[in-house]
Amino acid sequence: MATSKPSALDLKQDLKRHFDLTLGRGDTNYSRHYLYQSMALAVRDQLVSRWRETRERYRREEPKRVSYLSLEFLMGRTLHNALANLDLEDQARAALQDYACDLETLETEELDAGLGNGGLGRLAACFLDSCATLEIPVTGYGIRYQFGMFHQKIVDGYQQEAPDQWLRDGNPWEVESPENTRRVPFFGRVVVEHDPQGRECRRWVGTEDVLAIPYDIPVPGYNNDTVNTLRLWKASATEEFNLGEFNSGSYTDAVSKKTEAEQITMVLYPNDASEAGKVLRLRQQYFLASASLQDILHRWISRKGHDFTGFAEKHAVQLNDTHPTIAVAELMRLLMDEHGLGWQEAWALTESTMAYTNHTLLPEALETWSVSLFEHLLPRLLDIIYEINARFLQVVAQRWPGDVDKQRRLSIIQETPERAVRMAHLAIVGSYSVNGVAALHTDLLKQGLFAEFYALWPHKFNNKTNGVTPRRWLANCNPGLRDLITETIGDGWIRDLSQLDQLVPYADDTAFCERFMDVKYANKQALATLVANKTGIEFDPSWMFDVQVKRIHEYKRQLLNILHVISLYDRIRKGDTASMTPRCVLIGGKAAPGYVMAKLIIKLINNVAHTIAQDEQANQWLKVAFLPNYNVSAMEIICPGTDLSEQISTAGKEASGTGNMKFMMNGALTIGTLDGANIEIRDAVGADNFFLFGLEAHEVAQTRQNYNPQQYIEADPNFQAVMHLLQSGHFSLFEPGIFDPIIAALTASTDPWMTAADFSDYCKAQEQAACTYKDKTQWARMAVLNTATSGRFSSDRTISEYRDDIWYRAPEAVRKVS
Ligand SMILES: *Cc1c(COP(=O)(O)O)cnc(C)c1O
């Protein structure tokens, strides 16, 4: 049943009611902040009835439910997306007329929900939008971190981290649901007992429990009345703490216990693509897995009792990387210890319910947890993992009799350097589906990292190339382009992005191309304003905007980018500007607080930017800025205003990338390596419309055999000049030697990222891009083609593949693979 849309008057009245009554603000105080809160509450009112109806529909129709478990959801702001999906934008503008505030300004009052590091967390957010839009009954399960991704400041060129207080002013989008509180055990010990039938059973006793309180956030589909749920868990101390320990007189001990429980959901770990092995992180993972699975089982039991026949036909659990993988063992525990199932029955359910998405090939990112830590924190879970492993190793022994080495390599338990649980192995063994996130990535998983698992279970492996939601990343963030596209081909593309291919013929339509580039110019003005406000550097919108924004990591090679910038600077100083294209280079991204090299790269970028800003001559041709605190809201201004998208990772290291897709949709051209989804982007847009450079993945592996960076430097006078400027301390006059570690890494034969090997080819591709940019007609044509062929990179396409190949594969097929 469609919910009727409120009239302008309704929204206006709701806004006023919340402003006057809910928040108790008089008409003398039109503070923007309270106005934002009132608008958010008024819009939430509109979501609530649709939300309830969606829940009731799912209850009535009993479709198969999908739970998307992720330690990260990088949602960004909610208001604009909610208004657009409910088609209430015009009403909101009308409602604001009395308050002398425009909608865009009001929207900037909202703080980003930054509950994620980067691509992996943003993917989860895009997926939720697509699931609601495609009306798939998917619930996101995550953690309500009190502090999300840290706020980055740049002081004297160095990154400084400040806490992200996103809940400071309250969160109007969440609804606390204490009636659905779950109880998560930790510590304690395992005792062996016998049930009335005399069967041996194990009990986890003496645990210290923590309460998980759910906070629900509505996830509206695009113009369709479906509102799904993102359920985020907050940790809280149990009542026993309060009663028992407080009354026994140890007041301060009791308070510190309570604080310890609540620590679990205090802060997001700011590590992207690397694991630190911290106890609190394992507690977060188990807390999420246990609370979410209890939630799922509770709903089943309240309707069907303890008969689990058909459970797997009605549930799928998608694991976003190995982070929530303890769910495999936890589902076994809950089914056996709490609900009385035997091992075989429980295992059949578990391995036909769980599906695992791998996100990285980097060895430092593969999670292991020490056995001793597990034993202390989750003794019953370790028990179960041992049993899963024993049974799995029998399968390995049957398949490869006598091959003890293979058993050692495949074992869920690693023996050296310390005994540890390999979470990826647990995920593969416990899942019916294992997917990579781009074609190359999945191939590399099958051939390399997981080759032996692939040999054992080829049917489990599949590819699901990532995508991004075209609502947030085109329609909402780029209204100029949205209107031009809709005027040209209608608005069907917002739900079906493949329709953008109807724009292909317009790449040769002069009038269309001109309008397309006018929109781009306006977006560049907006981006220039952002850059000026945040850095003081003035970008000229008529210059080429060359942008690299993403987490700072050596494999993503921001260093390669800045080396190229230095080479341009060197050319300008030498007067070699005859054929130069003026360009503005923007770099942004956060480094993990403990990642020393990444932080030093930020310092180098800032010092180079500073040196260039001080140089009158260089400024005629080149502007460089480091944008602090890159986040979702910044990207919404950045990708519409970019000409050239930098996707320059070492081939074979970037699993997919999704920033590359946002830029492409908004008409940026890519300069990139054959890595991750870049390959598929280039296939889609055509080799002529992509600036390719660098070694391929197999060449990287080969070249590594006897890699000699010096040979590449000596072969290229440009490269020599760059190294000379670096080594002479030109960018660190007041802090001599600070960049020595960068020089050492770049020139080491062991450099895993092979930056030197790709430098010369990169500069050539940059020169080609610069040359092309001078030909406005040609550039416009290529830009239009990028948008026109980006349809495949909608997360709607990705999610429809998850739906058809993983979540709703016929149950027989599911059972057959288990
Ligand atoms: C899209 C996005 C990312 C992922 O960028 P990659 O270039 O794919 O690494 C990271 N952070 C934010 C804020 C994003 O919007």
UniProtKB/TrEMBL annotation:
Cofactor(s) it depends on: pyridoxal 5'-phosphate
Source superkingdom: Bacteria
Keywords: Allosteric enzyme, Carbohydrate metabolism, Glycosyltransferase, Pyridoxal phosphate, Transferase
GO CC aspect terms: cytoplasm
Pfam families in UniProt: Phosphorylase
Keyword Nucleotide-binding: no
BP terms from Gene Ontology: glycogen catabolic process
EC number: 2.4.1.1
One Gene Ontology MF term: pyridoxal phosphate binding
Statement: the UniProt record of this protein carries the keyword Transferase: yes
Catalytic activity: [(1->4)-alpha-D-glucosyl](n) + phosphate = [(1->4)-alpha-D-glucosyl](n-1) + alpha-D-glucose 1-phosphate
Family the UniProt entry places it in: Belongs to the glycogen phosphorylase family.
PANTHER family with a match to the protein in the record: GLYCOGEN PHOSPHORYLASE, GLYCOGEN PHOSPHORYLASE, LIVER FORM
Known function: Allosteric enzyme that catalyzes the rate-limiting step in glycogen catabolism, the phosphorolytic cleavage of glycogen to produce glucose-1-phosphate, and plays a central role in maintaining cellular and organismal glucose homeostasis. Phosphorylase is an important allosteric enzyme in carbohydrate metabolism. Enzymes from different sources differ in their regulatory mechanisms and in their natural substrates. However, all known phosphorylases share catalytic and structural properties.
This protein's name: Alpha-1,4 glucan phosphorylase
